[in-house]
């Protein structure tokens, strides 16, 4: 693939588009690791999204990799041979739908917030608070964007995106119908239908019930306090490293509890460490590489399986060169 030609063509076709060449992914992930990608596009609006997809797919037969804030992404030290489209520096529409209209029959008194995929979940939850709408309190401390939150069905403290999303608009690689509307999209634990669809999430519609602003704020403050007390927020990480395992004997099972039970807090490989504060977090204590993190995850996974019989699955997404991946 001649990335120079693609870069030059995008520059000519979309002069307003922010483009970066050989961009280090360590600048774009919460782990602060990752090598370069040959071209990164940062569209600011839906027209630029359409133009990038059209040029990439029709002229170069390239399928871009879509990302938000990179808060759930681990990138190879060698980088990845890809065109990356990053949403979180644009696509920042955030507004309340017109009075009296609701997307969700189950919430006849609800109001709908329209949020672009580049809006941070913190900003979205604060906007809901300002409107006196409840249901997004759990999202206030999740360090991701709306697009990434939809893609992963992000959640915390018993809440998740699937509980409040009524519709999602996405852009497919060039077709007669550029924007597709997904009413009541399909979600499961840390999964959405968009993980099987080659589509760029443009915006989401959140239908929320009216609530008492003081109670909403108190709930958000409580979640924030719990995060500060229990999570290693002072270090780069991708949040929970492993997914919650399936229940055993009808009882919930938690990855952090299993890792702690196996005495793995503080286990290190290079600059990567299982947090001593929260066993569910692998952190970058300084100078960690992607290889350090992957090797540490493999050790944790092997030890937990050997001692408990439970196989932990990564919640973090991996991005690398063709043929690379988890070495489990």
Write up this protein.
The chain has 328 residues and is an alpha+beta fold. It is built from seven helices and 20 strands. The strands form six sheets. Strands 6, 7, 8, 11, 12 and 15 form a six-stranded antiparallel β-sheet that branches. Strand 11 (165-172) and strand 12 form a beta hairpin. Helix 1 (3-13) packs across helix 2 (46-60). It is globular. 43% of the residues are buried.
List the defining traits of the structure above.
328 residues; alpha+beta; 6-stranded antiparallel beta sheet; 26% strand
Bulk shape: globular
How many β-strand runs?
20
Residue fraction in strands: 25-35%
Could you give the distance between the termini? 30 Å
What does the average pLDDT come to? 91
Give the helix level as a range of percent. 25-40%
Biggest β-sheet, characterized? 6 strands, antiparallel
Give the class from helix and strand content and strand pairing.
alpha+beta
Taking Cα atoms only, what radius of gyration do you get, to the nearest Å? Answer: 20 Å
Write the H/E string, N to C. Answer: HEEHEEEEEHEHEEEEEEEHEHEEEHE
Low-confidence stretches: none
Total helices: the number is 7
Short summary:
This protein has 328 residues and is an alpha+beta fold. It contains seven helices and 20 strands.
